[in-house]
Amino acid sequence: MADQYREFLERKVRMAPSAGFDVADADIHPILLPHQRAAVRWACSGGRRALFEAFGLGKSVQQLEIVRLAMAHASGAGLIVVPLGVRQEFRRDAGMLGIETRFIRTSADVDPEFTGIHLTNYESVRDGKLDPNLFAVASLDEASVLRSFGSKTYQTFLSLFDQVRFRFVATATPSPNRYKELIHYAGFLGVMDTGQALTRWFKRDSTQANNLTLYPHKEREFWLWVASWALFLQRPSDLGYSDEGYDLPPLTIHYVEVPVDHGSAEADRDGQGNLFRDAAMGLRDAAREKRDTLPARVAATARILEDNADDHFLIWHDLEAERHAIAAVVPDVVSVYGDQDLDEREEAVIAFSEGRIARLSGKPVLMGSGCNFQRHCHKAIYAGIGFKFNDFIQSIHRIQRFQQAFPVEIWIVYAESEREVLATLQAKWTRHNEMVGKMSEIIREYGLSHAAMADVLSRSIGVERIEVSGRDWLVANNDCVAETRAMEDNSVDLIVTSIPFSNHYEYSPNYNDFGHTDDNEHFWAQMDFLTAELLRILKPGRIAAIHVKDRIAFGNVTGAGVPTVSPFHAEAIAHYAGMPALGIKGHGFDYLGLITVVTDVVRENNQTYRLSWTEQCKDGTKMGAGSPEYILLLHKPQTDRSKGYADVPVRKEKIAYTRARWQIDAHAFWRSSGQRLPTVDELASLGPDKLAKLFTAYSLDTLYDYESHVRIGEALEARGALPSSFMSLAPGSNHPDVWHDVNRMLTLNGEQTRRGLENHICPLQFDIVDRLINRFSNPGELVFDPFGGLFTVPLRALKAGRRGRAVELSTPYFFDGVKHLQAAEVALSMPSLFDTLPDMEQAA
Q: Rounded to two decimals, what is the model's pTM?
């Protein structure tokens, strides 16, 4: 069994799957250089791969050859999607390879008898004119241009190719800090689901959706995984080949600062005067500086052009007003802009690349990717400056590329008040170079060997066990499956735990982590190893209280179009207790029911954006209901099934545990008295926190009236007293198994924050744990948590007069939790003033 678990963990080590075919070197066109041939063999072998190569390494030649070979293998048509103004580059390179190309715009243009490669632009696919699934092979050239379509279009565009057998991406090195872009490419290639990839490597902000940070301890693992499906190539020597002919031309940067009148600095929104104008103070200030300094920046641009009258120039700008101002002072400039006719725009780009136009102006977001302007241009001016680094670096490399014959010069024109913006841009440039260096280091170290990368990742399986104990508690830093296997049969009186919600979070970089799974099915497969042990160690007739929450499935991932709910709590019931009607056996627990822990629908919307007021107003059918948390009550069969009592019952003496206490405990809430409905003035004056408590209490004391509830909320909103960050008018629950009064903030994270330690991703609330311990265990008994986290369960067990035991895989969490337990042990053993009074009286 131990070997089976080890094998299960080893299968978690995932590199990009191979879905391709082998290519002999003799099958590759002889014109390709050694590094290009190696890239072609690697991409064809994978079948779905990305070429992230520096500017000028020959990506178009490689794409054409990869698509040609894949078409021959699949006996199907091939498509390359290119940015506007780039098709002539492919036609030129295809001619050298002896490949015929045909540019198409619609599905009707596809010729199944055509043996060459079809070319199209992104707009044709985006607008639904061309169905990519008519092709067996598809490659996206410079897919980063999709960002200009908007994030939603970006995501949906990539899903349009799901039925294409062989898929490739070829683009200049993407900004390594644009993690979402890399993840979307992985999803396009079918390497890994985007949601799964985000969960595996990124820390989520529990208060705001899409706010992601790459876990520091997973950084190398993440880049090794990326390197298994994406070739980051900066120069041929990264693959062991000669760099002869591949030296980037030197880049000279001229910073041109135009002065501003600081005497015209405006006051801030609070009325405080500013000594200096500063574009970095906010979007409003940045826009004002752009507007007010436009004449001076355009004049500086014109002077640079006058001083270099015989040279061809790219003039980059960000605003339409800048475009018009440049056209007014540079008579021979040709402009590219957003609502321009596509054919006209493409003709301007081609004419400049072929040297027929001397001055071309445009936005980096429109023509900063894919276009090759190096043959006739080596100078560029940035008539303004902004924060979008990726567009900036891409636009620079339209002329600074391998094979560029001249040194490159660029002029960055900025206002004196934009110095901080310039500093931010320079800092991003430095970080970009550092990250690109890391990727080159991985390629140089491992080459194109998946086996070598997988061997490194497999070393993160397992953990060296650490045990710490005190009076009435024992905790271990270990895999919970291994730890429970070492525990005695029938040794635990109560299990209280919050299991991982499938692959929603990962708590450690270890492959033993249950969150490090592909999907729900994979998660429950790992749980199979643990749950069998939990049933074994739990005493007969006793309870396992399992905290769970349903998962939100977003419409752009599922294809449903609307956010739906994955019933994770129902899957948990089936896993532990089975569902005979559906033929699901389960692990032998009896299901006794569930406790519902009400959550705040407003806070949930801030986390998931699925219950938006705005979206509800657009279409009420799109909005579901708030997703509560649940406590599943699972019962290990007692030895004598003819009786309902546990082998060791949880008894309470009626003298100490009165009927009145039972009634209050069973209902799990406190009633408040009140003679009348509070006025809106009184409610508005309370403030959000007091308002929330008072209204819930009121809703329990009076007959509920939906319309009155709404009217109170509307009146408070009109006074600006209805908060948008949480629900202040939540009704209370009168049902004993619906807990509305759980304090969401009462967790060990409060102590973590006070000590300056890392917060737990999903801390379990004290209220939940205390109620379960008191309800389902006797004093002195052992309470166990297989997913210990910061050890909330053993800590609350100690305070309730029980014994505690837990296991935690994450070493940082383990040591933080030990500190909490040790502090609690000292506090519990500390004598109070009343304990010392008899001794003091005797001494007197």
A: 0.59
